[in-house]
Design a protein that fits this description.
138 residues; alpha+beta; Arc Repressor Mutant, subunit A; three-stranded mixed beta sheet; two-stranded antiparallel ribbon; 5 strands; globular; binds zinc ion
């Protein structure tokens, strides 16, 4: 699933395809995820959308994201220890967190290196969390 142009129509279609009734808040949250590829948290999304959506609550954001994860529209990322981030890119990839600026980067998975695991185990997929210092902070 890769929406190139983010318009109202394609977001509606995606929700429909997944059997989700397209409430205004769900549309807005999904649109936000497409436009902000920063792996936002519930807090980030709530902070940015609440001025526009006055009736929005953190619980609604949380429940909407939970539904999107269940329906395989977004992926929950456990790179932080105390909160969850969300990724609209559900293809397998690893994440790099810069410990200086806190930015999360998408990294390609190096299949060859990654297949090197203990005998008797079969890898189905792997996604890593890497912590370090990014290009911009070095
Ligand atoms: Zn950085
Ligand atoms: Zn990602």
């Amino acid at each position: 699933m890769n929406i190139k142009k983010i318009d109202h129509q394609s977001i509606l279609r995606l929700l429909e395809e997944k059997g989700i009734s397209p409430s205004f808040q769900r549309i807005k949250i999904l649109e936000y995820l497409f436009l902000n590829r920063t792996h936002p948290s519930v807090e980030d999304i709530y902070k940015d959308l609440s001025s526009e959506l006055l009736t929005l609550s953190k619980t609604t954001v949380y429940n909407t994201l939970k539904l999107f994860v269940e329906k395989n529209i977004v992926k929950a990322i456990g790179i932080e220890k105390d909160f969850v981030r969300y990724d609209i890119d559900i293809s397998p990839h690893s994440h790099f967190k810069c410990i200086k600026c806190g930015k999360i980067y998408d990294l390609k998975i190096n299949e060859e290196k990654d297949n090197n695991i203990d005998e008797g185990f079969k890898k189905v997929y792997s996604e890593k969390y890497i912590y370090g210092i990014c290009k911009n902070c070095k």
